[in-house]
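Model: Ready when you are.
Researcher: Fold this.
Model:
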Amino acid sequence: MSELVTGDAVVLGLRPAKLPSRALALAIDLVVVVTVFGLVALGLAFASGSLDDAAWAAVSVAAFLLVPVGGPIAVETLSRGRSPGKLACGLRVVRDDGGPIRFRHALVRGAMGVVEILLTFGVVAVVASLVSARGRRLGDIFAGTLVVRERVPAGRAAAVPPPPPWLVGRFAGLDLSAVPDELWVAVRQYLTRMRQLDAAVGRSMAERLGGEVAARTGAPPPPGVPAAAYLAAVVHERQVRDARRAWETARAGAGTGRFAREPRTGVRTVEDAVRPGAGTADEGAGRPPATGFVPPA
């Protein structure tokens, strides 16, 4: 799988779209554009029937620039790279670094699309997409963009590698409340993909992330401990705390729950039996007598 790698050598889980899916999305977009352009042209024909040839030519050129060219540019800019065809096929246009596109990216792609798609009937775009390793056409190359797949088959999530045994529980008293969620996400991404990075790049990233974690927790890595092992131990400690907190919450919720009646037998519970006014003659005076009560064994 070809993946995107940012400037910080963080591998993004985005798959570049290939020619078949892009061709299907383009076909859907062309159907939408032709339909809208036909409706606009029909409306202009009724509205400008009294114009001369020069005025009619100017109106036609303006309509062509507005709908087939300006329409896709505006849609991709406002939707952050998702035209109707791309939305139907689960695709999106992003920058080379994985960020959302802006108006200038959509403008360059739209201007080049007139040449390589409309004027050449898509031949240039098909050839460029087949030659490119990531399926990019000329508009993507000049704009610095890439079409990726947003909906991918669900696979097994990569697990964070465990820390060394001698570091387990070493940071039990560490205060992790000052570490933001963005830093946790970056650390988890590094730990799950550190074997895919270059050794020198991975080491520098681990040292940078370890320094940020240590600055927010006040506990630097022990002497002689690699930064990757330190990050793994800190993440493991947070996972242990999250699991313990979830278990305590579940136990507390189960301990305070009340059940008025068993679902199948209709027998009232002991808690309801010992509650005041639950069926005694003196405490339940003025209330309807409880029926179906069976003393617990």
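Researcher: Now this one.
Model:
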Amino acid sequence: MTTSLPPRAGRRCHNALNPLHSTLYFSPDLDREFGALGLTDPAAMRLAARSAPLGAVGAGTVAATFYNYKAELLAQHLPGVWETASPAAVLDARLRTADATLRRLLGEEAVASPEMAEAAGLALRAAEACTRHARPLYSANADLPVPEEPHLAYWHAATLLREHRGDGHLAALLSAGLDPVEALASHTATGKGMAPRWVLGTRGWRRADWEAARDRLRERGLLDADGELTEAGGRLREELEETTDRLDAAPYQHLGAAGVERLTELGRGFLIAAAGAGAFPGDLVGKG
């Protein structure tokens, strides 16, 4: 079905679901499960966890599909990581991590609740309308089986919706002429992106790369002398999100206004519980 939605309804729903997927990357359960496979480097673990649906890919494929990682960092780990653990083994470990993480953060009662089963059903229904063309990360995840347990089905569906929106967002970044570091720096300047130390610590860029990108944004009139977004910079970031909304509209139109509202409500409840249980580092988001 298709129906008109309130402005930004799909974006609000995404913002409720996406972080629960992301709990995986900050979870001690990931270190344990991937350590058992012989993967102990934090960067290698997290790169493998997200790229495993693509198969035993190399640095070039991941640079293209992840967009904002430095190629040299990727080449340190890919494709070599697959010599230690196959993509199939990593996918199994990823699902075990999601299971352990959600049980720890949300509790057994929430995991087994009717609300969790309802959220999984709604999210999977939305994902029925996702499209594969020009969506490599979504499409690769869509080839994976849907887990039977509702909390894992919910995590899987959140992953599908996250990657579908993310693939579209890359097209918007390209259209806006933002390179990987410029995209990161301008997002951080909104106050909603990762703090610089997290960007530099996980994406492979150096402080000199960051400052050079900020200089280029200043030359375009997008950042001011203090590194804050100018009016033009704020407008560009909002245009990026609006373009992404348009490219990502189909799943939420398919689910319908009432379904999107209910899924957002349920997703926010789970997210608040997870955040309250320490799912994310306290200094993850911010300008400093």
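Researcher: Key takeaway?
Model: Residues 150-176 form the longest helix (27 residues).
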